[in-house]
Amino acid sequence: MWMPDLKLDFSGFRPSLSLSNRVREIAADVSMEAPSDSFTKATIHRIVDGTGEVFEGIFRITSSVGTFLVHERDTDAFRLADRLKERIGRQLANWKMHRFADEGGF
After folding, report:
1. Which of 20, 35, 47, 78 could covalently link to 63 via disulfide, CB atoms 3.0 to 4.6 Å apart?
2. Paired strand residues for 71
3. What is the Cα–Cα distance from 87 to 85, expressed in whole angstroms?
4. Which of 89, 39, 49, 40 is nearest to 73 (CA)?
5. Domain count, the chain
6. Contact present, 80 and 55 (Cβ < 8 Å)
7. pTM of the complete model
8. Mean pLDDT score, 34-38
9. How far apart are alpha carbons 54 and 25 in whole angstroms?
């Protein structure tokens, strides 16, 4: 089975096993939709300030056709991961819809 080229990075906290698995699953799913030569990096930071805590997430896919990038913040890390997946999924769907337009495709 093909394994996507991806990296996960958590900072400011130690993720639960369920969160780590969920982010890995999402990143792997997203990688399957990305260009074949892509590298996916998912980063989630926990930020604590005077108003409480917030999670900041970044999904970046780098490939020969360009970079796909989304950035979100949320107070819930699981919801953040789902929002990142949704947004980068829209970028990838848009790329797939238009990727052959410049080549005079079918």
Report:
1. 35
2. 58
3. 6
4. 49
5. 1
6. yes
7. 0.86
8. 90
9. 22
Helix axis angle, 77-98 to 17-33, nearest 10°: 0
| 58-92: pLDDT as tens digits | 999 999 999 999 999 999 999 999 999 999 999 99
Phi-psi region of 99 (alpha: psi -120 to 50; beta: other; left: phi over 0): alpha
Residue 13 lies inside a defined structural domain of this protein: yes
Of 41, 34, 30, the closest CA to residue 8 belongs to 41
Residue 106 lies in a domain: no
CATH number, domain of 92, equals 3.30.160.100
- Per-residue pLDDT tens digits for 52-62: 999 999 999 99
CA distance 52 to 87: 25
C-alpha torsion 48→70→8→50, nearest 10: 0
Say yes or no to pLDDT of 103 above 60: no
Q: Would 105 be classed as within a structural domain?
A: no
Structural domain includes residue 1:
no
